[in-house]
Amino acid sequence: MKLKALIILALAAVFLSFESAAVEPGASKAGRFNLEKDLLLAQFDCKTDVDDLHSVAALVTLLSDSQFSSIRYHAVAGTYGIQNGLYVPPNDLFRLAFGDNWSDAHDDFDAAVEHVKGLIATTLENQGDVWIADAGQSDFTAALVRALATDFLEETIAQRIHVVQHSNWNEEVTSPEDLSFVREKADYHKIPDGNAVGNGTPGFRSPDYTGWSDKVKDASLHEVWQLAIDLANQYNGKEGRYLNEAISAGGLDFSDLSEVCWILGIADIKDTAGFFERYGE
To answer: Domain spanning 31-279 has what CATH number?
Structure first.
């Protein structure tokens, strides 16, 4: 009888340990993201590839879906590193897509860092995590982490500031000291490249895809997509900027969205057509 009682007590302890580790009552998650507490930072370098413009339109489309419409997010333009080439002016698109919910690191880097730092601090103080989709380089992220270090413990930053990068090239043209710093101080994740299909993340670079207009029924989203495409065509390969061949062929490239998909646990979309099938209408 004593052995049976001990077994029952042991099983009860195991059950309680699982129960205590469960997500707190009322919490709602999308993949790794806590919809009630976390902050999504979508950071776009906009230099010198125009794919960021398509990625902005895709992000707004995704966040318009009822599953993700409650996400607290902020966008940042001009988070570039040490690459050569001209900037792709995105301000008209950012204003149309995000309203006032974005910062301009190209125009005023220090002011953008200070503003975003405040958003992050509020999130951390409310026990949320911060997920940074680095659709570009990590120089701006490094500045954020350095600014946060004056007010938060290293352990807090290491555990609750999550940085997601999908591109080898973005890493190569981040200032080496900044990339090393972010890797060391934050929770850094290098995921498979969003330019390719079948590698574990969705592949959103599609030179042959032209069916977005028929899929996007919402008038405001359609306007965002049209402006993104028009601006991309205006600046693609111009004045020494990078020539995005998928876009010059008439297709789409929003490969940077693979990072947000990874954060939100969207792993089953194969490609651009799959994205619009699910979120376009």
So the answer is: 3.90.245
SS3 201: coil
- Bond before 48 cis per omega within 30 degrees: yes
pLDDT (tens digit per residue) in 54-91: 999 999 999 999 999 999 999 999 999 999 999 999 99
On whether the CB atoms of residues 59 and 194 are closer than 8 A, the answer is no
Residue 92 CB contacts under 8 Å (≥ 6 apart), including other chains:
227, 231
The residues spanned by each domain of the chain are 31-279
CA proximity to 43, closest of 156, 131, 107: 131
Q: Where are the beta strands (DSSP E) in the chain?
A: 29-30, 33-34, 39-44, 72-77, 102-104, 130-135, 161-165, 187-190, 205-206, 252-253
pTM of the complete model: 0.90
Q: Tell me the chain's radius of gyration from C-alpha atoms.
A: 21
Three-class DSSP category at 271: strand
